[in-house]
């Protein structure tokens, strides 16, 4: 016979309650009951978008039976298919890399060419939790690639001081979700250093890297997209790549830029995104959006992971509706490329903006307001925003939360029928 135990969390609980749940799950999975299995009640496990409505509020179900857990379908976190860009030929020889390897390559190029460059953060010495700095300490020494205490405010504060002293400072925040303790250092110190000193001093040689966005199982503390917080702050640049090639080129551009930059790296793409990436250093210009697909009926604007969702949306719109979509990767969130976006909207008359962050106060609102001001007479329908909800990022209910291709597709149909 089989038995099932369900742990239900409907209200905020003490931290130890969650820990107890996790311990119970681990015991049933790894302990005396060797044939236990863990089935998360989520639409991801069902493998079908159309099964979402079947699930109730249960968060964790542990079933003990005679079936081998390894025979069960694996959890597929990705809600998109990565689309590699054409192989770049203008930058010399290329090598197959995923996104974290492209980041490593950019950092390697920087350390090799700039003797003042230093990389620091929690666990970067052994390669970091995502392996972005693997091998760099052994190659360049522990005085140039080194660990810091668990203190994000201290990491950024140290980076500001190093940059003011003339070093090329590259700070890693282990997850973008934990950048908030350093918020004061970024917005009140780094962003204002040049202004408050009358350009006598600056920390423009500071670059802050952080893994960003949803990953399929990160939940509320490892899936956030905080770019809009920093887009409200003059004095810093905010950049998010969509692919390995863009990651290397944009990161090198951030490091070379004379202003402090925040570089958010889509963590779900670290291994999922693979391209032929130039081995030698190259730069992708900041504040220039890229038109990835030209179209005539609807403008689609996104950045990071969401670009790959929008590629699928554009294909669906063409196949099912006969609608031609123009897809734009914003790339730089601040300062953003208003000219490219507005030029496209003048042509298409419709705009859909999508990002993973909550909709209220998200950067889609700034884009929407600017386009409405500059392209009002060209609009054929209200601007649409398909974003995350105004809730903490969920765990098993992530498929409900993310702005997937079906939500975006429905927004296009609504605009066309306006």
From TrEMBL:
<dbReference type="InterPro" id="IPR033248">
    <property type="entry name" value="Transketolase_C"/>
</dbReference>
<keyword id="KW-0809">Transit peptide</keyword>
<keyword id="KW-0496">Mitochondrion</keyword>
<dbReference type="Pfam" id="PF02780">
    <property type="entry name" value="Transketolase_C"/>
</dbReference>
<dbReference type="GO" id="GO:0005759">
    <property type="term" value="C:mitochondrial matrix"/>
</dbReference>
<dbReference type="GO" id="GO:0007584">
    <property type="term" value="P:response to nutrient"/>
</dbReference>
<dbReference type="GO" id="GO:0003863">
    <property type="term" value="F:branched-chain 2-oxo acid dehydrogenase activity"/>
</dbReference>
<keyword id="KW-0560">Oxidoreductase</keyword>
<feature type="domain" description="Transketolase-like pyrimidine-binding">
    <location>
        <begin position="97"/>
        <end position="272"/>
    </location>
</feature>
<comment type="function">
    <text>Together with BCKDHA forms the heterotetrameric E1 subunit of the mitochondrial branched-chain alpha-ketoacid dehydrogenase (BCKD) complex. The BCKD complex catalyzes the multi-step oxidative decarboxylation of alpha-ketoacids derived from the branched-chain amino-acids valine, leucine and isoleucine producing CO2 and acyl-CoA which is subsequently utilized to produce energy. The E1 subunit catalyzes the first step with the decarboxylation of the alpha-ketoacid forming an enzyme-product intermediate.</text>
</comment>
<dbReference type="InterPro" id="IPR009014">
    <property type="entry name" value="Transketo_C/PFOR_II"/>
</dbReference>
<dbReference type="GO" id="GO:0009083">
    <property type="term" value="P:branched-chain amino acid catabolic process"/>
</dbReference>
<protein>
    <recommendedName>
        <fullName>2-oxoisovalerate dehydrogenase subunit beta, mitochondrial</fullName>
        <ecNumber>1.2.4.4</ecNumber>
    </recommendedName>
</protein>
<dbReference type="InterPro" id="IPR029061">
    <property type="entry name" value="THDP-binding"/>
</dbReference>
<comment type="subunit">
    <text>Heterotetramer of 2 alpha/BCKDHA and 2 beta chains/BCKDHB that forms the branched-chain alpha-keto acid decarboxylase (E1) component of the BCKD complex. The branched-chain alpha-ketoacid dehydrogenase is a large complex composed of three major building blocks E1, E2 and E3. It is organized around E2, a 24-meric cubic core composed of DBT, to which are associated 6 to 12 copies of E1, and approximately 6 copies of the dehydrogenase E3, a DLD dimer.</text>
</comment>
<dbReference type="Pfam" id="PF02779">
    <property type="entry name" value="Transket_pyr"/>
</dbReference>
<dbReference type="InterPro" id="IPR005475">
    <property type="entry name" value="Transketolase-like_Pyr-bd"/>
</dbReference>
């Amino acid at each position: 016979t089989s038995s099932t135990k369900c742990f239900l969390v409907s209200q905020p609980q003490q931290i130890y309650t969650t820990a107890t749940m996790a311990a119970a799950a681990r015991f049933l999975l790894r302990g005396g009951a060797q044939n236990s299995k863990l089935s998360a009640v989520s639409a991801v496990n069902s493998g079908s978008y159309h099964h979402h409505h079947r699930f109730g509020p249960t968060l964790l179900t542990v079933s003990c039976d005679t079936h081998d857990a390894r025979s069960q379908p694996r959890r597929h976190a990705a809600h998109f298919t990565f689309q590699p860009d054409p192989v770049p030929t203008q930058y010399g020889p290329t090598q197959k890399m995923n996104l974290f390897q492209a980041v490593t390559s950019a950092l390697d190029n920087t350390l090799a060419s700039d003797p003042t460059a230093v990389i620091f953060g929690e666990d970067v010495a052994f390669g970091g939790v995502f392996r972005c700095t693997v091998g760099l300490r052994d190659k360049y020494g522990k005085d140039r690639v080194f660990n810091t205490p668990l203190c994000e405010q201290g990491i950024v504060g140290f980076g500001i001081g190093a940059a003011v002293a003339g070093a090329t400072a590259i700070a890693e925040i282990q997850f973008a979700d934990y950048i908030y303790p350093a918020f004061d250092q970024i917005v009140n110190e780094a962003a204002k250093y040049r202004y408050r000193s009358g350009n006598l001093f600056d920390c423009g040689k500071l670059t802050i890297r952080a893994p960003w966005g949803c990953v399929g199982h990160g939940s509320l503390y490892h899936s956030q997209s905080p770019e809009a917080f920093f887009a409200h702050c003059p004095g810093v640049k905010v950049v998010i790549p969509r692919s390995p090639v863009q990651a290397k080129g944009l990161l090198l551009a951030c490091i070379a830029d004379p202003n402090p930059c925040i570089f958010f790296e889509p963590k779900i793409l670290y291994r999922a995104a693979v391209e032929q990436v130039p081995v030698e250093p190259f730069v992708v210009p900041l504040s220039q959006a890229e038109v990835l697909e030209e179209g005539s009926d609807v403008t689609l604007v996104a950045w990071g992971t969401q670009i790959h969702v929008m590629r699928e949306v554009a294909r669906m719109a063409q196949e099912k509706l006969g609608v031609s979509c123009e897809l734009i990767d914003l790339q730089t969130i601040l300062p953003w490329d208003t000219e490219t976006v507005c030029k496209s909207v003048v042509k298409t008359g419709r705009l859909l903006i999508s990002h993973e962050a909550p909709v209220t106060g998200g950067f889609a609102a700034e884009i929407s307001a600017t386009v409405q001001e500059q392209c009002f007479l060209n609009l054929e329908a209200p601007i649409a925003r398909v974003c995350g909800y105004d809730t903490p990022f969920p765990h098993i209910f992530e498929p409900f939360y993310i702005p997937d291709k079906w939500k975006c597709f429905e927004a296009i149909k609504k605009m066309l029928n306006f």
